[in-house]
Design the sequence.
């Protein structure tokens, strides 16, 4: 289980590297990569619209990957602490089915966000 989580963590970090850069104002956080705004005619409204779209998409993917990465890191930390597989809120055992669907789950079905 730990190995699978470590692999997922590496994969998520690699994916983040493709769409995001480290947030200079928040080390440890990420922001979506901005498309290069300077290589085209800035008066080209259509092109600007497209770049805005690319940026929005990068930002959305970045947020999603960051959330998943945070969960994986939490799960790894709970393995170290010996609390893996128990709900962080009620301390009950998490359904194995739920864990199988999401091996980074840190809450039971009743306390899922
Ligand atoms: Zn719970």
Sequence:
């Amino acid at each position: 289980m730990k190995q699978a989580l470590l692999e997922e963590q590496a994969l998520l970090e690699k994916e983040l590297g493709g769409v995001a850069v480290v947030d200079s104002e928040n080390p440890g956080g990420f922001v979506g990569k901005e498309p290069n705004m300077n290589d085209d005619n800035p008066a080209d409204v259509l092109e600007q619209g497209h770049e805005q779209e690319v940026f929005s998409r990068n930002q959305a993917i970045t947020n999603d990957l960051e959330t998943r990465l945070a969960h994986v890191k939490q799960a790894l930390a709970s393995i170290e602490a010996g609390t893996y597989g128990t709900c962080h809120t009620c301390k009950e055992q998490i359904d194995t089915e739920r864990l199988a669907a999401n091996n980074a789950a840190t809450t039971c079905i009743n306390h899922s966000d």
